[in-house]
Amino acid sequence: MLRYAAFDSGGGGGNPAGVVLDARGIDDDERLAIAAQVGFSETAFLEPGDDPATWTARYWSPRAEVAFCGHATVAAAVALAGQGAPARLRFQTRSGEVGVDTDLATATLTSVPTRSAPAQDDDVREALGALDWAPDDLDPVWPPHVAYAGASHLVLVTATRERLARLDYDFPRLHSLMAARDWTTLQLVHPQGPDLWHSRNPFPPGGVVEDPATGAAALALGGYLRALGRARAPTRLEIRQGEDLGQPSRLLLTVDPHDDRVRVTGTARRLP
Q1: Model confidence over 52-94: pLDDT tens digits?
Q2: What DSSP designation does 172 have?
């Protein structure tokens, strides 16, 4: 079991993930028990493929398996690089193949094809109720969507950074809605400018109040921007997450209007 903090800001922070480099022979119940014991939002379990560049990757939160996890993939790729793996890897996940370019400190993930569609009004009202937010707390320029890039996320854009900073939600109520809709996290975001976004990600289905850095949600945000036509040329933007938790994280997102796969880049550092 290795432990890494992914998407750290360069001075600490990031989101911790567990990495099991060879999970052959570990059944699903044991994997769930290991993830619960580790206690991080995600633990990646890897199995080697037919060549050194191909790996099967599966992910468990302390409560359940998750189809895809970005920060644990960054952690796993950097961990493999430290073991001498090729710089270009292919992870076979439950959501499809994810390409990863990596070195000893950084990884760039290429998502599965993204999609994004308007959220149902009833679902948005229930989510706002669980968050104790009013409709006016949302920016009307940015419609609520459910976006997918390996996992589904409800995207809500706040009108102010202050609204995003004040997050105290009804855990059971939000968990019930997200489990029914198969949403992995909520992608709650605020744009400070065209190239800088702030993000927070409640994750009650995984038994986690909030994720300090969420690669899968960042990729989904890229699909959302692409679907809305907000990336009319290849665009690179920064997402800052975890600041309100004291775990500052930095995710670099690349969106190309001519490519339905988006990319996210982050660092990973080994934890004791």
Answers
A1: 999 999 999 999 999 999 999 999 999 999 999 999 999 999 9
A2: H
